[in-house]
Predict the 3D structure of the following.
Amino acid sequence: MRERLAAGIGLLLVAILAGGVSARLGPAIPVAYAAIELPGTATDQLARAADALAAAMAEGGSGLTFEVVQSNSVRAKPGGPLIGVRDPADPTRVVAEVEEFSVNAIVSQGAVTADAFWMEMRLSPGTEQAPDFGVSAFFSKVLERGGVIWRDQGDGWYETDGSPGTGMDPVSARLLPRLLRSMTDVVILAPEIRDGRLLPGVRGVGRANDYPGVVASDGEAFTSPTFEITCWLDESGRLVRLETTANNLNENVYDLVSEVVVTFGYGSTGEPPEPSPTMAPQPAPTDEPGDIDIEVQS
């Protein structure tokens, strides 16, 4: 059975672990990886991180930079049919049945300030290699400023009603403080190495209405209502890495899973782009690029 999986702006696989701990004498952790100890309960730590996010995006704040990797995969449901892998040379022939199939990855880089949001998104195929922004295919640019959203898919900027996005978009970015404050079942994690640093973490449960773009921009209606979130914090208690796993509910036979990793920097955002040249007088595109058809075997 051929199922069309809407994997446009909302699917993904990958969490990138950078760095490692090495010790020449015994298991001692090197000074460079000394554990950070933050005061307070898990709720206290998330509240301080939320305050730091809000301050960065407020008037006169430092602004935020971000990088997003959203990995999308199809997984067989417990007790459900496996996913049929078809021969590229003969699509009628199923050569293997697997429990999980990588669809694609969306990688984004951008920034948000008190009065602007901008990013560039690129598309990686579904492979076992970690998505790389530098070599991925261009997908779209987005600019939101003064209440107006602009988009460029390679033919010039045009005004649009909504922003694309996976893990970050203008609405989701400004809801991040609320997301951290509203997480439930929160627990403090033992420090782990992320992005070359040994960071303290807090894990809990978030809600789609506090993070509507976790799967896709404006995707709350087809996102699992709750999902696990892990927050990694720096020595100042600021959120520097966010990890989530949520389901895209557009697929019934299989689980359509989006894994998102967002890394944050504070300050040095640069200037937002100018929406020039524009597409005028060309009409804005009507089809969302990036939708992928996948052959599966029921």
